[in-house]
Amino acid sequence: MKAELINKFLEIYGHEPTANYFTPGRVNLIGEHIDYNGGLVMPCAVTLGTWLSMAPNNNNVIRFKSLNFPESQEFPLQSSYTKTGSEWFNYPLGVFHEVLKKHNITTGLDLLFSGNIPIGSGLSSSASIEVAMAYALNSYFNLGYEKIEIPLLAQKVENDFIGVNCGIMDQFAVAFGETNKAIVLNCDTLNYNIVDCNLGDYSLAIINTNKPRKLAESKYNERVAECQTALKQLNQEVSLNNLCELNAEKLSLHSHLITDPTVLKRTTHVVNENDRVNLAAKALNEGNLIEFGRLMYASHQSLKDLYEVTGAELDAVVEFCSGYEHVIGARMTGAGFGGCAIALLKKGQEEDFTNKLNDFYMERIGYPTAVYISEIGNGASVI
Q: Where is Mg(2+) bound in this sequence (predicted)?
């Protein structure tokens, strides 16, 4: 990919890039819909991602081009920017806007992005682009940002410049990922542990349902509101900053305070899912992939029955996986209602798995999935 990008850069800009970077996408292995409840999540970086080549120019402009999108844009070098439309280049432009609050960049730049993360799949293509831009500027201009500041800057771009109220997990995972490692991240404190995640004879199969996630945003906001209702009712007797301060025993003692049975279901998922992350970390540390896979299935079942964010497409994928002998664990990942599922798939079975899954899915849903095989990869880096 690097050689192809350099050749394309030369073709487009008439000169070679002076620096090249790679930033991965991410999946969340377990710990879903608990980030906004102060819970633990377990993301990892994948080997799909974003490549960025860049070089200075003498025209005092920033030129954004991508091999994945037809839109390109050129902006004069100035002290601040505003979002224009919804095109992809707003993500790196927002990084410039944020960086220029503290640093004076006086050199124009030619930029060429390329990526193989399926857009809209829930693998964090936007976070990958943001972190790539932030990492590249920090590295190229020696801006002095600490490693933890890169994902925080990218999150601020997403929140303030793009206008999406996301948490820190996506940006954190693509900045801090390590080969064959997962990150156990406390979304309340940003404390984290790196855990071994050597999949051995298994690969990470990422299955894109190819369903547009039209419901995801509205249902996401609805789930956030339900969790806030539960927190408010529980705080009549206990003092909680967030739901993930509860354990199952404490919830059972105070569950009578939650008057809506649907809200109680949501809360039960949150508490149990947070526990599953700890159990998953223990399983990985012990090299027990079978137990880890069992926890993945349990997570999906909870997201289906208690949190109700899966949908027919994701359920069909996980149902197939549960009956396929070479998969030991599968679950939806991301917000749900479309997007992707992940599975632990025995190496060597990729073609058979893809063909049989798509036959099953076509019959059940009416159109095919897209399957991507990935290892657990590194975070942002110079290439």
A: 126, 158
Q: Give the C-alpha separation, 199 to 377, whole Å.
A: 12
Annotated active-site residue in 110, 160, 170, 305: 170
| Domain annotation covers residue 329 | yes
124 belongs to an annotated ligand binding site: yes
Structural domain total, the chain:
2
CA distance 142 to 21: 15
**Residue 33 annotated in ligand binding:** yes
Question: Is 220 annotated to bind ligand?
Answer: yes
Summarize pLDDT for 345-372 with one digit per residue, the tens. Answer: 999 999 999 999 999 999 999 999 999 9
State pTM to two decimals. 0.91
Query: Is there a catalytic annotation at residue 170?
Result: yes
Instruction: Please answer whether residues 342 and 330 qualify as being in contact, where contact means their C-beta atoms are separated by less than 8 angstroms.
Output: yes
CATH of the domain at 40: 3.30.230.10
Q: How far apart are the first and last CA of the chain?
A: 11
Tell me which residue range forms the domain holding 42.
2-196
Of the residues 140, 174, 196, the one at which a domain ends: 196
Structure tokens at 165: 């109220």
